[in-house]
Amino acid sequence: MGYINRQAIIAQLKKDLIGKDSYRGVTLTYSWLANQFGHFSLGFIPTIIIYSFLKSKPGIQHPELWAAFGVWSAWILFETYNFLGPLLLKVPTKRTALNKGNYTFSPAWMNVAFDTLTDLIYFGMGAFAASLVCHYHPGMLAALLILLLLVAYPAYYWYTTKMYVQNAEYPFQLRLSQWNQQIDDKNKAAIQEFLDNKEQGKHMLIFGSRGSGKTTLSIGIATEASIKNNCCSYVTAVKLLSLFFEKTANPRHLDKLWYWRNCNLLVIDDINPGQPVKGDIITTRLFYDLLNNVDCGPDNIRHIRDKNIIWVMGTDDPTSLLEQKWETLLQQIGVQKSNIVTVNLD
């Protein structure tokens, strides 16, 4: 199973820190590093400015301390309001927001809180570092060292989490709480159960017509799994059909930490377009024939059967029996019926 280890983190850091982003794509890890440098700077620069103003005022002792703690306190107040405002203020409270449908799936508030605390540590580091530049104070040095120790785990967690998300190769970024389409309680509960599941071999078939939000929903679910540090992969059905003919040790995959065969969760998108397009473009017969090819058939079937997969389907037209056909296919390759769940967004 692919995973992120120390060597992988060091290799990613080299890619992010060495070279110019003008001739390469900006990764999520690079963006996170730049974001934290911005938070550090937003603590550092105001502290320098305020210290320059305070040191000329008679009667103010240790202006470097007042400036640093003043700036950090201001950012703490701002981030507290930014985080708790929507939860505590009357318009909107968290309950009202949920009742009004602003959140179909509730945000991972603990994850958001941890992100907020991480930002505050970087604000404080910037402010305390600026204070030391302005005037050395042993207490401030101790405070900065404490923050450096405190930020070690959050930095490791967030950087590796960004690696989990970017190596999934999603076509866009979306948290599940950002998905705000209509869905009934039964399907919502099925999605939450699928996301909370710790076992492998679970299959979710998401049906929907064009514009129903089936692709965004699948990416939102998978993104939450990535943030929980699961190895996830996104692939379109047409691309996967060609990958069925590549053996596990294919050298084209050596630059990836994992790929579709050894991930925890696989999203197979665009199996069929759905309404207004009628008919099956990728039929179960075609899918199985390519899946069970001479070179890699048994290996393909094992990996499809034994991993968690989100199947993004077309419209579940009763006349085409699409749901029944794909459930039959999955059972044909050994998936238990109890491990198959269907979500219909139409």
Structure report:
The protein is an alpha/beta fold. The chain has two domains: 6-167, no CATH class; 176-344, 3-Layer(aba) Sandwich (Rossmann fold). The chain contains twelve helices and five strands. A five-stranded parallel sheet has the order 2-3-4-1-5, with helices on both faces. Helix 9 links the parallel strand 2 and strand 3. Helix 2 (28-54) packs across helix 3, helix 2 packs antiparallel against helix 6 (138-167) and helix 5 (109-134) crosses helix 6. The longest helix has 30 residues, at 138-167. The protein is elongated. The two termini are 36 Å apart.
What attributes does this structure have?
single chain, 346 residues, alpha/beta, Rossmann fold, 2 domains, 5-stranded parallel sheet, 12 helices, transmembrane
Low-confidence stretches: 90-101
What is the fold-level CATH name, i.e. the topology of the largest domain? Rossmann fold
How many helices does DSSP assign?
12
**Major sheet size, sense and barrel closure:** 5 strands, parallel
- The H/E string reads HHHHHHHEHEHEHHEHE
CATH architecture of the largest domain: 3-Layer(aba) Sandwich
How many extended strands?
Answer: 5
Q: Class of the largest domain in CATH?
A: Alpha Beta
Using only C-alpha atoms, the radius of gyration works out to 25 Å
- Helix-strand category: alpha/beta
Strand content: 5-15%
Helix content: 40-55%
Strand order of the largest sheet: 2-3-4-1-5
Question: What is the CATH superfamily of the largest domain?
Answer: P-loop containing nucleotide triphosphate hydrolases
Average pLDDT, rounded to a whole number, is 87
Number of separate domains: 2
User: Rough shape?
Assistant: elongated
Could you give the distance between the termini?
36 Å
